[in-house]
Write a structure and sequence with these properties.
Shape: globular
Strand order of the largest sheet: 3-2-1-4-5-9-6
Order of helices and strands: HHHEHEHEEHHEHEEHHEE
Mean pLDDT: 90
Low-confidence stretches: 1-13
Structural class: alpha/beta
């Protein structure tokens, strides 16, 4: 599931997290539509690997915000998410693109229903970080399994890309929690992923929308500290990790 951490939700129980995003899927779609208003992410991905002509498998596609960008850039995209309610909102976006070079299906990140060595690129965005919630006492084992699944999916010489949070409400990158810092270090030190970062700021349509969406998904404290009255831009730093197999 491509997600943002919800500040009010207890993040140690798998069921309530899924239930929250299932019930708030439309609001979540509105939120991510306001993210990265300058289009930094797709440009950064193209600097790492030229997307044109690639077959892509996307893990945790959510409502299809990244998927729709990839469909316009790559040869074909197979996107998966655990929640059918998220995919139901992704489908109209992709249909509106006019492209037929995509597919959507429900699947767990650890078991992609695709053949081995089928993709040029395996990518996830704001999804793998939830290993810290699903398996807090043994997250390294789950991380290793997810990365092994990425390696299974890509062809020899293919690439895996991980996109995750380096600070909502921040202008300079920093892991939001100590656990996330350890996760990112694990990717770099054990698995030898390279890393860079970009700004993916949110640009809201109105103060009312900013208050509604940012408060729900990011919490009162961040909103009041980082988003001044009548300010429509909420800064965000995003990390990009990549490795060629």
């Amino acid at each position: 599931m491509a997600r943002r951490r919800h500040a009010r939700l207890p993040m140690t129980d798998y069921g309530p997290i899924r239930a929250f995003y299932r019930s708030q899927a439309r609001l979540y779609q509105r939120l991510v539509a306001r993210q990265d208003h300058r289009g930094e992410l797709l440009a950064a991905l193209n600097e790492i690997v030229a997307l044109a002509g690639l077959l892509v498998v996307e893990f945790g596609a959510g409502t299809g915000n990244l998927t729709s960008k990839l469909v316009g850039a790559a040869a074909r995209v197979h996107a998966f998410d655990l929640e059918p309610s998220m995919l139901a909102l992704a489908r109209p976006q992709l249909l509106a693109s006019g492209s037929a070079s995509w597919s959507l299906a429900a699947a767990d990140n650890g078991r992609m229903p695709v053949a081995s060595n089928c993709a040029d690129l395996a990518i996830e965005a704001w999804s793998f970080v939830y290993v810290l919630d699903w398996q807090p006492d043994d997250w390294r084992k789950l991380v290793d399994q997810l990365l092994a699944e990425m390696q299974r999916v890509v062809k020899p010489g293919g690439i895996a890309i991980l996109v995750e949070d380096l600070g909502i409400g921040r202008c300079q990158p920093a892991a939001p929690t100590a656990d996330m810092a350890r996760l990112y270090a694990h990717w770099q030190e054990r698995h030898r992923f390279q890393c860079s970062w970009i700004r993916t700021d949110y640009q809201f349509a109105s103060p009312v929308e900013a208050d509604e969406l940012a408060r729900l998904f990011f919490g009162d404290d961040l909103l009041e500290r980082r988003l001044r009255p009548h300010d429509l831009t909420l800064p965000e730093c995003t990390g990009i990790w990549w490795k060629r197999f």
